[in-house]
Specification:
The chain is built from ten helices and no strands. The protein has helices spanning about 10-20, 30-70, 80-105, 105-115, 120-140, 145-165, 170-185, 200-215, 225-240, 245-255. The relative contact order is 0.06.
Amino acid sequence: MYLPFPFPDGSEAKRTYWDGPRKRGRPPSFDTHIANARITESEAAIELERAKEHGSSWQAAARGIEEVYHPYCLDSGRPRQAAQVAEELEAKFEVLDAIVAEAELSEASKARLRKAKRVVPKMVATMTFFHEEVQGRVAALGLPPEQESLLFGNLIPSAYLQRVASRTQDRDRKTRLRRTQDELLSELVFPGAISSRLSKEGREALEKIAFECADVFQRSSSCIEGRNGRLSQWEHAMRRLHPKKLAGLTVVHNYFIKRTDGTTAA
């Protein structure tokens, strides 16, 4: 709305006009302009509060996605299966969709949200891969059932929570994660616990396995291309490729993968 004076509501302009020398003609409709300016200010304040609410809701939903995307519950250490993660991610994105619609954001904003939502199946697949990979690694070790139970129930979740806590900057969240980790480890010290029958070397070996399994889960990777990029992704997800596997991948790349013109890297 156009206002004929550079003051928030025109009150100062009105006082200046009547206090100083007046020009010829009818005086401006100060009261009307003041009333309109106050209406505009009130509407702007309402829109500002609404925008703040949308921003807070958006940040909460975004943080919720971050909290959901973990293979273990950060509050209990219990495993989170892919179906549960998929359901909770969909719920978070539904909240974001509602905010976008209510706030009447631009098409570009809607497109960015749709692009982010398309990643959900890959996030769920990563969760499935993690649990299957961990199951396979532990099964390949041929450990006694009670030691496998110790790994799956306590040591691997505890190791994962320790990794998350070491990366977070939020003190409250770090404290919460440490508390959950302590609760998981406290179950190993009561009389008769499986860990009490393990030697120091055996306990350290299981802890090493637990951290290696926890490190299988990687939340993101850089945008990379080519063979080196592919190898980086393998290293990122699998942690330290075996020399024989690396040699095999090199042979496949050099002699078996053909370019569009029929040639190979060799």
